[in-house]
Structure prediction request, 330 residues.
Amino acid sequence: MDGIKRVLVTGAAGNIGYAIIPLIASGQLLGPDQPIILHLLEIPPCKERLEGVRMEIEDCCFPLLKGIVATTDSKEAFTDIDIAILVGSVPRTAGMERKELLSKNGTIFREQGTLLNQYSKKNVKVAVIGNPANTNALIAQAYAPNIPKENFTAMTRLDHNRACALLASKTGTSYSNVKNVIIWGNHSSTQYPDVRHAVVNGKNAIEAINDDTWLKNEFISCIQQRGATIIKARGMSSAFSAAVAAVNHVHDWILGTPEGKWTSMGVSSDGSYGIPVGVIYSYPVICKYGKYEIVQNLKIDEYSRALMDKTYEELLSEKTEAYSFLGLSA
Prediction:
C-alpha cells in the first residue's frame, strides 16, 4: 500500500472497539509496513470514555500509528477515510422485538451510509460488524450511491472462525489444519455452517469427523447459538473474538486470502447459488488485490439448499421490515 491509510472505528469506546484498536494500530489489519491514522467515533455520552481510550493508544507508542482523530463529530470521523469498520449499533435487549431493533439500527446506518457517501473516499471499504450486520450493511449501501455496492460487506468471519475451531477441537487438531468451511446467509441463528467442502488435515471434513448426526445437529446448532451461549456465560456479548474476526475480515479482503483457502463474507448477492439479488448474503469468497470473488461451481445438495434458502428468507424479511421503516422501496 502507498501512503497513510485512514481507518475508522465506530463505537470505539465499546467492548469490541476497545479490543480491536490495538490490533489495528499494531499492524494486524493492513500489514507491518502500512502507516495509519485512526479515526475513532463515539456518541456524545461516551466522550469521556473515548478520551480515555485515546490516551491509552498514545501510551502504547505504536510505530505505525501516525495520528488519532477521536471525536463525537460524525462528519470529522468519516472525512477522507479509506476503511470503515462499523461496530457501533443498538444491541438487542430483553423484551425488544426484532422490528424495534431493525428500526433503531436502520436509522443509525442510514445516517452512516449518508456520511460515507458525502465525506469518505469514493473507494472506501466498509465492514459492518454491528448487528443485524447483513441488513445494516444493506441499509448503509442504499444511502451511499456514490460508493460501489461491492465495497459494503458484513462480517460472518466470526462464525467462520467458530466453525473452524469446533472442527479442530472435534478432530483433535489445530485450527491451521482446517480450511474451506462456509457460512451461508445471515449472521444470525439461521446461518448455515457448511462443512461439505471443508478439509481437515488434508481429508474431507465429513470423512474426518465420521459422524453425520453430530454434523447435522450439534455442530450446526452450536455455531448458530454460539453468540447467545457466550452471553449466557460471561454476561456480555463476544468482544475480543469479534474484534479478531473483524481484523481477519478486513485483512484478507485488502491483502488477500491464503493460497488454496477461502473465507466467508457477507457480500452483495449477485444470483450465485440461486440467491436473488438484493440482500447481503454470506458466501465463500477468495480475495485478491483488494477485491473479493464468490467461489463458484460448488455442488449444493438438497439438504444444503433448504438451509441456504431458509437463511435467505430471513434476510428478505429483515430487508422488508427495515425498508418499510425507512420509506425505501424493497
Remarks:
- The domain at 5-154 is CATH 3.40.50.720 (Rossmann fold).
